Amino acid sequence: MTRFIPARETILGGAILVLxxxxxxxxxxxxxxxxxxxxxxxxAPLIILALGQMVVILTRCIDLSVAANLALTxxxxxMINVAMPGLPIPVIIAIAVLLGAVMGAINGxxxxxxxxxxxxxxxxxxxxxxGIIFLISDGKWVNSHEMSPAFTDFPRIVLLGLPVLSxxxxxxxxxxxxxxxxxxxxxxxxxxxxxxxxAVYTGIDVGxxxxxxxxxxxxxxxxxxxxxxxxxxxxxVDIAGGFELEVxxxxxxxxxxIAGGIGSVGGAVLxxxxxxxxxxxxxxxxxxxxxxxxxxxxxxxxxxxFNARAGRNKGRIILKEAEATQ
Amino acid sequence: MxxxxxxTKTFPGVKALDEVKLDLYPGQVTALVGExxxxxxxxxxxxxxxxxxxxxxxxxxxxxVSFASPNDAAKAGIxxxxxxxxxxxxxSVAENIYIxxxxxxxxxxIDTAEMHRSAAKLLTDIGAPFSSHTQLRxxxxxxxxxxxxxxxxxxxxxxxxxxxxxxALSHKEIEELYELVETLKSQGKAILFISHKFDEIFRIxxxxxxFRDGAFVGDGRINDISEGDLVTMMVGRSVDQIFPQSTxxxxxxxxxxxGYEHPTEFADINFTLKKGEILGFYGLVGAGxxxxxxxxxxxxxxxxxxxxxxxxxKVIRSPAxxxxxxxxYVPEDRGKxxxxxxxxxxxxxxxPSLGKTSRSGFLKLAEEFxxxxxxxxxxxxxxxxxxxxxxxxxGGNQQKVVIAKWLATQPQVxxxxxxxxxxxxxxxxxxxxxxxxxxxxGLSVIMxxxxxxxxxxxxxxxxxxxxxxxxxxxxxxxxxxxxLVRHAAGITSDGAAA
Lengths: 326, 498
Fold this sequence. Notes:
- The complex is a heterodimer.
- By secondary structure, chain A is mainly alpha-helical.
- Chain A is built from 14 helices and two strands; from the N terminus they run ααααααββαααααααα.
- The longest helix of chain A is centred in the C-terminal third of the chain and has 27 residues.
- Chain B has two domains: 234 residues, P-loop containing nucleotide triphosphate hydrolases (Rossmann fold, 3-Layer(aba) Sandwich), CATH 3.40.50; 237 residues, 3-Layer(aba) Sandwich (Rossmann fold).
- Chain B has 17 helices and 22 strands.
């Protein structure tokens, strides 16, 4: 399990602790277990999305459509709920995950079969997904009173002291831990991102691996779509607008190399938690929320600079010298 | 005009140039001749300031100079035209010619009008059939060479280096290039011409210099030497490497290739490979050996051809197909295509064998370590721990990791592309030793190599490729450096170039 919590993650974990200490010196109540649980619950959607994004970034791609995917699935399941209030929640969740996965698959096919750069593909689908929300909803909101109580209550149900929303994040973390460390798919993801040429020679289909990474990211965006809409009990065109950048930021802060191949589940989770703590703490210690942007931004730059230094000795190309003898 | 004397250049583990000398004269073409790995490219890189020599002196007009950067070399009037032209597709011809030294207006801006005027003049001088406004992207390779030459003239170069300039040109274009070389000669420029093709060398060179294994062998006037003697100078060497004695027996046919063909890279490839045999593939750079191997391994697709493994026809569409049919490929460029830097050693080794180390879809780390340990021990891999990043290993050990990775799949045929390129002599011997052990254990080996001693020392049989075709198939008894070079360069037995 060396990949789960290497040194880089320890440092990020330390940074989060220092941050918590600083905040508690201004406002002790912040670090009370119940409040920390709230912060975690609030960060759960970001954690789930960051894990999906991590898989995509590890394969040298990027998924900018996650927030739009979330909003579209959220709107779709909200409308389904309004039309068929009796539909059980597990079915709703299955629909959300499936719908999200299909949207991820669209990204994946475009990247795999048409070889369009991922940033262009997902920038395009991001806009298209938002447009579709407008088309299916006529730009109208689906409000809490239209949704069934079962629909809106589900993420709030408390199991063993934590709400379902938190459990969704925890289960995703565990599943991803296993997937990345203990399955062929997880290993292929690192191989594809670490050295696509070598992956090809090893018999790994690079495009196919990237396709599945997009499907995974899409499925998680779909799941989060339901959780988001039911938690806030509202669905409209612009929900989670711009959230994709926060998701990418969580990955980058968590040490996922934007060049692919390097990163860990622990890193992505800690990156998301770091942003969650900053976002929740600033209002309590009376710092303008606008500082939040500056702090997140600085954290990204520091994390990237730090990782660039750490990664400099990697990827030493031994054949540079040999080529010269030709 | 330019003379290099006692130039030495070492890279970690490799002595690329050992006290070589090279003289260039104004108005004359000097051909630099040598096998792959003789040090020709290193010499060009030193002359153009890309590398700095570890020892020796370069003199221009008897004054010692040193080039700290390519810029210094350019200022001294040395310019190179590379095999693949180093130009900018998205810029116009004039911009390409004058990039870096464009004429300026009074305000320091680029004087476009003046630039096009002088570019047009240069183009007329060399007889280029296109305008200075043409986008470089729209030109063919031959015309791109003309742009490169115009660029060389625009900086008022005194020394022009041509590194295999004809490699990608048609017959007619080559003739035009020769005329241009004559023009440059008449303008008093010193020309260094690097080529593998003997007919070219004898056609346009005035002088020759021969390097072998990074050392100077001889030089002189081209009229004073025959083709045969030049070949002997290139390849004649003392046997300084000892190869393992092959004691293994060759068994039944394992692989049979019939009529492999690719639209551009190779055609009409037929051969068989027997169990426990080491089949060498020799040829010059660009002969299509690696391209064929990639097709055999399913990375590129041949347009025609049949592949039989143990007598059964197999369709290989992807590397995964090749691996499952027992064919594996250890590529030449390990940095780019072999080891996955960032993954630990054991994960690199088990990557293609993950099916074997997993139970019901989950990887068993203990089994992975066991498999990795088994093969790293067989290869005598030296690493502190199998958990270590591959990137921290030496070249020889990285090579072992890549080979271990493939052996772990228990293949029948292993293709080794330049297996000892860029590794030190000690590791080379270990790789050779190991290769003959593999063959003795019944594995069939295809070895692509440009090193003549390696080809002769290791192979049971050798296929020589030239221009994408099989030029000759030689048994062990027929092997000699001269025959290999003759077939690879297309020189027929009477000494004339084919």
